[in-house]
Design goal:
single chain; 119 residues; mainly beta; four-stranded antiparallel beta sheet; elongated
């Protein structure tokens, strides 16, 4: 399973940006997909997640500003509004997927995309 994140870039504080993550490979089902981020000198942080049923969850720090969505069968998006300098980080996606050679779902990670918010 490969995960490709895209859409990162530089935006001013208060602006918006949308990033996407596309999964590919021999995937039977995607149980859930999540966005994580890591800022310099900070812990890896769960930002938002979406289950196969469409249930979503968000970190308190982004509630009301970020929206996760399933754009296609294997593609998720993260709409980020009212961005703050503290949102600056590398955003990576994780997928819990079932593949033909395994009876249990496993986690797979993508490389991430850089989001920089200037003040």
């Amino acid at each position: 399973v490969q995960l490709q994140a895209s859409g990162g870039g530089l935006v001013q504080a208060g602006g918006s940006l949308r990033i996407s993550c596309a999964a590919s490979g021999s995937i039977l089902t995607l149980e859930r997909m999540d966005w994580y981020r890591q800022a310099p000198g900070k812990q890896h942080e769960l930002v938002a997640g979406i289950s196969s049923r469409g249930d979503t969850n968000y970190a308190d720090s982004v509630k009301g500003r970020f929206t996760i969505s399933r754009d296609d069968t294997w593609v998720i998006g993260l709409q980020m509004n009212s961005l703050k300098p503290e949102d600056t980080a590398i955003y990576s996606c994780k997928a819990m997927a079932r593949i033909p050679s395994s009876s249990l779902p496993r986690n797979y990670w993508g490389q991430g995309t850089l989001v920089t918010v200037s003040s």
